[in-house]
Amino acid sequence: MNPLDKPYAQLALALLTVLVLPLFLKSGILATEILIFAMVVAACNLLLGYTGLLSFGQGIFFGIGTYVAGICLTRWSVPVPLVLAGAAVLGAATATLVGWLSIRRQGVYFVMLTLAFSQLFYFVAYTFSGVTGGDNGLLGVPRPSVGGTALNSPWSYYTFVAVCFVAVFALLVMVTQSTFGRTLLAIRENEGRAAAIGFPTKLFKLEAFAISGAVTAFGGALHAMLIGVAPLSNIEYHTSELILIMTIIGGSSSLFGSVLGAGFYLLLADALSTVWPRWLLLLGLVLVTVALFLQRGLWGLVERGYDLVFRRERAPETPAEEH
Amino acid sequence: MTDIALQTRGLGVKYGNFHALAEVDLQIRRNSVHSIIGPNGAGKTTLFHALTGRVRASSGRIELDGRDITDTSDDDRVRLGIARSFQVTSLFPNLALRENLRLAAQGRTPWQALAPWRRAEANAEALAIADEVIERLALAPVSNRLAGELSHGQQRRLEVGMAMAARPRVILLDEPTSGMGIDDIEAMKQLIRDLGRDHTVLFIEHNMGIVMNISDMVTVMRLGRKLVEGPPAQVRDDPEVQRAYLGNMITGDIA
Prior knowledge:
The complex is a heterodimer. Chain A has 14 helices and 4 strands. By secondary structure, chain A is mainly α. Chain A has a two-stranded antiparallel ribbon. In chain A, strand 2 and strand 3 form a beta hairpin. The longest helix of chain A has 27 residues, at 201-227. The radius of gyration of chain A is 19 Å and the shape is globular. By secondary structure, chain B is α/β, with parallel strands linked by helices. Chain B has 2 domains: 1-81 and 168-255, P-loop containing nucleotide triphosphate hydrolases (Rossmann fold); 90-167, no CATH class. In chain B, the strands form 2 sheets. Chain B has a 6-stranded mixed β-sheet, with helices on both faces. A 4-stranded antiparallel β-sheet of chain B has the order 2-1-4-5, with helices on one face. In chain B, helix 3 (97-106) crosses helix 4 and helix 3 runs parallel beside helix 5. The two termini of chain B are 33 Å apart. The chains are: A mainly alpha, B alpha/beta. Chain A binds chain B through residues 174-175, 177-183, 185-186, 189-190, 192-201, 203-204, 207, 211, and chain B through 52, 54, 73-75, 78-79, 83-84, 86, 90-95, 99, 103-104, 106-108, 110, 112-120, 122-123, 162, 165-166. Chain A: This is Amino acid/amide ABC transporter membrane protein 2 (HAAT family).
């Protein structure tokens, strides 16, 4: 195993990311968005990389977190910790329901079911505009405040999200290292055998869904507070797709790969969109390149770089962890 | 406790309109080595699938220690004490050999594994069982290799080890020697005979040398039905069995 895949290395890389982003980025908003998507993508990776489930439903949970924050903060001014906890619980509950129905089928049919649910929830949100604000979304979602001062400046909210990110990432590392996480790997490898040696595999998949849904909704709530809106687009199918693309670009064999994936996508989108309005086309090319030449994603590249630098006793430069 | 570990009555399995298994009555004595033989397509593996719960019985009933388990799910049956190996090697190829066995040992207490905060190493018993099985199968030198990188013989041994790690009362082995070299076959024969001391062993085998040597009881199947049953010597000389096998397959001597 590559030393970078060890749990403490993963955690250290996550901490490093949190500390390094402010040094390189001018925009606190962009840096915060990267961290939010990093945890959401890592949660998607728990399903794709660890359990072997390609879920198109991640946008549902993200959107639900967004609406929980939007509704609770604009209408009832619920305390933020409660909002975040509520988002996670509702995210987990929804993911359990979606998962419970979807894992009855395997392969393509499973994917199609999650896709169908994603459309379903979008139209529910669109239709019940009294609750969700429909096309306009919910405007005026306030930032949280700590010690009486609202975190209105981008970098103060970044700090808040950074703490959440590190905590969530540590939690996900713990999950993947646990006997539960290792059973998920077994289910991904050979579900029939996992069942034959006594594991109720559906229950394990369901729990993976619940954890993934909780983290994704948590991230959705943070996102609503970041941009001050709970938009309909957060529950759109497009968000599911975005999260999946980031997961695949980053590489599904390690949790930190997801952080790379989210960072790479958002930074590239930010850079390209100022250069050319049709930047999505270029992004398509990037995705094709990853699919053809980098099947282990950016993380695979990092691992190879690390091997080059350290295993062949070359000058001990910093490992190639930049995008 | 009765003397019968596993018993079926009128067991049948249908795949669509095809009767893969019909009217099978089996009685497997505790701590015996009971083998199932028969030509290809006789329903031997289907019988195993039905016994382990991988496929549902469409008729009849299955009892483990007198308890009806016909409607019990496959993972529940592991907890009740049935474990199996597969005819086609079915491992976790990208996990280490030791991890394969640890998982198999953990499979008896799967609810523990649902706790996402519990470390895998916290289950010392599972680790101890994994190491014990590694020792018994003489796989220690390769215990940290990925299962997919092992040689065929090693994979076949691990396949049997996966069933052993569940510490079952009844162990079902589906062609444990398939594709093995001569030396490996001899070791497997010893192992199966050994297993018969602390487990009830039910195994499917084409190698008549092994079957006739180490079985306490032999059941011959053909076309989804039980043809003959008895001690090895009696089965070997049965004219019906000779005919089913076209007379030329049962050549193994009784040691």
